[in-house]
Amino acid sequence: MKPSRQRSSSERPARTSTSSLRCRPACSPAGPTAAWEKFTQKVIGLVAAKRTRGVVFMAWGTPAAKRVLKVDAKRHLVLKSVHPSPLSASKGFFTCGHFKQANEWLANDPNDR
Questions:
Q1: Is the Cβ–Cβ distance between 70 and 30 less than 8 Å?
Q2: Could you tell me if 98 and 75 are in contact, meaning their C-beta atoms sit under 8 angstroms apart?
């Protein structure tokens, strides 16, 4: 029996994004920021739809959690927690264990996501 070769995490494609891409501080919330939010939502939807499985979505904060509501949790791992800002990080972010959960989920795939 030939042992399966699992790719290390450095060999797996990884992408990060934030649900709230920003422009200059003088921008109004209804201006370019709103356009970035639509763009980000579209990217999340496309990634969730096109990748058949194996994507980890980490949604930190209420706005981010709303962005991943339609992601199929049977095909992808969806993790939600409070935002890691100084005001709320101690309310659950420090203990949520998202990176450990993501690593374990990715490592336990029999088809090597």
A1: no
A2: no
Contacts 24+ apart (CB under 8 A), 74-80: 75/48, 75/51, 76/48, 76/51, 77/101, 77/102, 77/105
Q: How is residue 10 annotated by DSSP? A: T
Please provide the distance, in angstroms rounded to a whole number, between the alpha carbons at the two ends of the chain: 21
SS3 109: coil
Q: Would you place residue 20 in the very low, low, confident or very high pLDDT band (cuts 50, 70, 90)?
A: low
SS3 letters for 44-71?
HHHHHHHCCCCCEEEEECHHHHHHCCCC
Q: By the 8 A CB rule, do 59 and 67 touch?
A: yes
Cα separations in angstroms, 92 against 31, 50, 80, 82, 85: 32, 31, 10, 6, 11
pLDDT digits (tens, 9 = 90+) for 45-67: 999 999 877 899 999 999 899 99
